[in-house]
Design brief:
Helices cover 31% and strands 19% of the residues. The chain contains four helices and four strands, in the order E-E-H-E-E-H-H-H. A four-stranded mixed β-sheet has the order 2-1-4-3, with helices on one face. The chain starts with a strand and ends with a helix. This is DUF7054 domain-containing protein.
């Protein structure tokens, strides 16, 4: 029975993978959290703008458009190499979509001139 897995997580815009040793019954969200923790601890560059795991998605590769489900068990993924990137703002926080609905300041100014 496997007790630990050695996984490689390539983080967007970073050189080289982060090596994470983690239990196989952990989830994708646990792996994201561990990879961020190691990345920050090693003081890798570029620095992450956000360290909250909810702001990141895990993919099989940088060419895979579909992100892995956060509650998926690592043992069921069938891979040891992953790619982590930041999520689009609308999937993390609804305030981004609210900002998109509000008109641009220039439009407000144009209405003022009319």
């Amino acid at each position: 029975k496997l007790t630990k897995l050695l996984l490689n997580v390539n983080i967007e815009r970073s050189l080289g993978p982060v090596k994470v040793v983690i239990k196989p019954d952990n989830t994708v969200s646990d792996l994201i959290e561990a990879a961020i923790e190691i990345y920050v601890k090693e003081k890798r560059r570029p620095f992450l703008k956000e360290t909250d795991p909810r702001f990141f998605a895990l993919h099989y590769s940088q060419f895979s458009l579909k992100s892995l489900k956060a509650d998926e068990k690592l043992i069921n993924l069938g891979s040891r190499n992953f790619f982590m990137c930041s999520k689009p703002c609308t999937s993390v926080n609804s305030s981004c979509s609210e900002k998109a609905i509000t008109p641009f300041p220039l439009i407000k100014f144009m209405e003022f001139l009319l």
